[in-house]
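Please, structure for the following, as tokens.
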Amino acid sequence: LRLAAVIAAVWVFDALVHAVLLSDGTIIDQILRPPLPEIYSRCAVAFGLLCSILLYRSKIEKDAQLSRELDQFRSAESMYRTVFDQLGEGLAVRELVFDEEGNPVDYRYLDVNPAFEEITGLKREQVVGKTGRSLFPRLGEDLIERFVTVAMTGQIMRFEAFIEDLDKHFGYTVFSPGKMQFATLMIDVSERKRTESVLRQTAFFESCIAEVAKILVSKESEELSDVLEIVAGALNLSYCSVLELKHEKTISRIHEWSDQEGPVHTQQFRGFDLTRLGDWYDTLMSGQCILARDLSEHTKSALQEVKMLSEGGIKAFASVPILLQGRLIGLLSVGARKVHAWSANEIGLLVTISGILATYHRRVQAERRMEYLTYHDSLTRVHNRTYFESKLLAAIASKPVLSVIMGDLNGLKLINDRLGHAEGDRVIVTAAKALKAACREQDVVIRWGGDEFVMIMPGADEQDAANACSKILKNCRSLDNGIEVSISLGHATRTDTSVSIRELIKKAEDLMYLHKIRERRSSRHSLLSSLEHSLLELSQETKEHCDRIRELALAVGKELGMSQSELDELALLASLHDVGKIGIPSHILLKPDLLTPEEWRVVKKHPEIGHRIVRTISDLVVVAEGILHHHERWDGAGYPHGLKGEEIPLISRIIAIADAFDAMTNERHYRSARSVSSAMQELRRCSGSQFDPSLVPVFERVIGEITHARTELHAAGLDTNG
């Protein structure tokens, strides 16, 4: 080998001048000078062949290596393409695009995978070779700047961005695969973003709801502008209103908030009848919402009221019913000055707020009712004494000129006993109306007690008070219930604050009682006459019936030797023994058919009613017990107390016999009249059971005497109507 190396070294220098080794291994002799000796020539040829073989072998080995590397590259490329295509994330390879000055201004797509196509909705052939700005005209500059930074620095970035042209959110991982290139791994995070947005909105809405609820719970006034502003702000709206309804259809009150960019006209809707909205009203009554993304779509055939909203700059409109126990009590209405599609979350907020408003309305109504009951008389609906003490007294204390009228109804107890408390209440109500009708706008009527009223008249002088009293008396006289009800009045006036309100009321009260004393006797006589008139009017009793009973009773009384005062009581009882019947309903009292057991129980209450009536009248109280017991029986089987024997007042026992005899001997609508002998036979039969056995013979003698006297008068040609 060493020899060969030496020979080769020598030969190479010489042989290279004569021969050229071609790439395919052939040798071309070039005779540049005379040939060497043959041995050298052969050595050169042999060495040339050896070198050719060695070089060819080296080339073959290099080609094999290159082939192996090419196979590896192709395998890697295939694997890369498989990964590229099968990757679940969208992958896009892009290169920067430069302007003439060498500044990066855009990027161009080199390749995208199927996942990119799926999440963007763009096909590969639509994307590859195109620039970002040509595909997405609204692409943000900040996003391009991030891509440029990665391509030029090689750093890796991860972020999320919204592509407006695709209306999607993407999560990006950006890296640089080559010089001035960048690749993006993309995932669609739109649904998560929407969920996060909904959750954020829900949390925000919940905070708004909590704030609204907190405000309404502690709210003292009924002004709702602060609540409406919160709702409008939460939804980024231009106006918000609450419309209170009367009778589920008429707008009675409007609470409104607007951004003041222009008129909304909703205040002109007061008094508007919602039934004019047609289908919209039916929708609201069914508990559903009215939703209009573009109000102009509804104005061609809509009512003027709807057009007014549109003309006021409102584009989108929504109205949610406010329901309380199934009744439509109001509307929560909102509007925006641009077209807006109402989301479920927004409607949910409005529905929730409407529910809170319904609860608030119920609380306000309860508070109003509570305040009304606290400061008003439930019967007359005028203010009560609590209102005077808690509110009015302090308000009028500084008024220098002020008048007070004190009024007291006369005979109210008698009316209650005579016709029942319902009729007495009607008298009280009418009296309150009489006072209210005599009031000026600034005057206040107060029910001071059961039958007492006070009228406070700020700024009224004595003449004003006197004129008001005249009006009150005139109004009271117009009461039409068959009984003349009177009211005693007294008034007092102050001209400065040296006289307190309480002193003024006391002075008016003293004057009122003075007038009452003067009017009392006149009032009693008037009431007595009215009682007699009402008894004859409301029952089937006649004046003749009362006169006959009085005649019979007095005859028996004289036969028994009664004193004049006892005879007077007997005559009075004969006239008023059935006065309690005026407290019995007329449909029972005048019923032509037999009474039912229940109706009969009602009728049997008339002795007690009559007793209550007359015991309130000093001139009649002497016959109160006689009225109470005139339906008792000798054997104790009568009513109302089941007295027996001589427990029953004598005048009651006499009236019982006289009344029964007159009833039997005079015709009634349900039977014919009996003869005197038949009636007397019935009295004798009931003697000792229903009637006093000692009085029946006396009554029989009296009837005999009366009959004999009438017979003689008739024979003498002097007929009588008795």
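Residues 87-188 form a domain with the Beta-Lactamase fold (CATH 3.30.450.20). Residues 1-7, 9-13, 15-33 have pLDDT under 50 and may be disordered.
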